[in-house]
Amino acid sequence: KMRVEDGSVVMNGYLYPNQNTKGVSTAPTNEIAFAKGATLSTSRIVFTGNASFDVDASTITGYNGGLTEVRLGGDRATRANFNFRNGAVFRCQGLVYQAVTATKVSGALFRLAFDDAEWFAGDADRNIASSNLNVRIALTGKGVTFAPPENRTWRLHTRTEGTGGLVKRGAGTLRIVTQEQYCEKAADPLVYAATGVIDVQEGTLAVENGAIAERRRHVLDVAGDDGDALACAGRTGRGRPRQLVAGDACVCVGDAHADRIG
Length: 262
Hints:
It is built from no helices and 24 strands. By secondary structure, it is an all-beta fold. The strands form three sheets. Strands 2, 4, 6, 7, 9, 11, 14, 17, 19, 21 and 22 form an eleven-stranded mixed sheet that branches. Strand 23 (about 250-255) and strand 24 (about 255) form a beta hairpin. The radius of gyration is 18 Å and the shape is globular. The N and C termini lie far apart (about 50 Å).
């Protein structure tokens, strides 16, 4: 176990948070915690066995002001978890999955949980998560904030679940796309199944057809009156969020509803 409070861990290289647990699903999990404004700076975090990060009001970032990268290795026994909460910031350019195929593994190998936390993927166009079936994003409470910079597009194509919300900030575009499964020929397009508030405060939210669950309603903070699709930033004149059906895909730009896509 390791716990860092109100301090910094700086690594000019890679962090391996666990020992190799190849083939041992019951191997112990290394527990690593950052709290009270602590910071981990490292070029890459590489999982080759079981490990769990709890990031409470703290930051994981890259070395020398850059972005980190997370790489999931090991085999079918590997279990890796991140838990970001209470204003935590995850400065990560992306996830790289290098384990066995999904058809040989049951359950998620890699889980990222967010409750009032931000994932910042940098000033570039990004695929901000892996599309592999064994990676999951779990949202609870206030969920996750994405703030892509102006003229940048971040593509979300990892299955996202839970009761938490999503906040879209930044002048750029967050694009929720259908799931592109590397390991199976018949892809399930559904990506976003979280049931919390989707709050578009700035920039563009683009949603591809089939990427968001249509079997239920989403609560969104909206300015317009488009009641049959995702809508736009702000609230209604009465200050209350509207219930909108997540049906056909659409784009939200600033505080005005744009043409649909798809």
